[in-house]
Amino acid sequence: MSQHRNLSVVERSSIINLRDSGLNISEISRELNMSRNTVKLWLRRFDSEGSLERMPRMPQPSILTQERVQRMVSVYEQHPFTPTRLFAEEFDCTAQTIRNGLRRAGIRNRKPAKKILLTEAHKTARVRFARDYRDFDFSRVIFTDEKSFKSSQIGRRHLWRVNNTRYEPRNVLPNNESGRVVVNMWAWMSAAGPGELVYIPEEQQGQPTWSCCKTQCCLL
């Protein structure tokens, strides 16, 4: 049973009437089927205030003032991976309070995008290639490449960001590789669609890609 459940005016009056009739707190509690703390609360309130009406509660000032919220927003716009516990410790509140404040400010908890970050040289070269071959007929071209998939030491990470900013550089988690587990694959594609995906055995990883994959394809 809740210690201070909401009582009607009739129930509050019954507490006072039963005390006036000579019952003690335990007897009133049993008679009205309510906790001793509730009985004591209303007896004390009646004795001190002379009333059985509930006093209006004064609103508590928010821990997260507008200035604090603006400061958090500024930090997360530049450093989205900042743990919420840091602000919780600084403002002497719970991490949930910080998370609620960020959500109200339009900043949401998201999983980061993971990819290899391109340098300016990479970006320039890709744009140049696209422009140079914009009108080229790729229908008779085969694109081929190999890829090494490596295990990562990065666990589950989250960040705080506004919507529609997933691939902005500050919101992207670079691919860090531990090298503990390595799987090498080779594949090709053309205008007609994707080709085969071929696993490159460890003993063939030092050989030229094309001869290695021809051998593997023959084995298939």
UniProtKB/TrEMBL annotation:
Where in the cell does this protein reside? Answer: Nucleus
Question: Domain Transposase Tc1-like spans what residues?
Answer: 90-135
The Gene Ontology CC terms held by the record are: nucleus
Q: So which domain of life are we looking at?
A: Eukaryota
In terms of Pfam families, this protein maps to: HTH_23 (PF13384), HTH_Tnp_Tc3_2 (PF01498)
Write out the GO MF terms.
DNA binding
Q: Which residues form a coiled coil?
A: none
**Principal localisation:** nucleus
One Gene Ontology biological process: DNA transposition
Protein name, per record: Transposase Tc1-like domain-containing protein
Q: Which organism is it from?
A: Spodoptera exigua
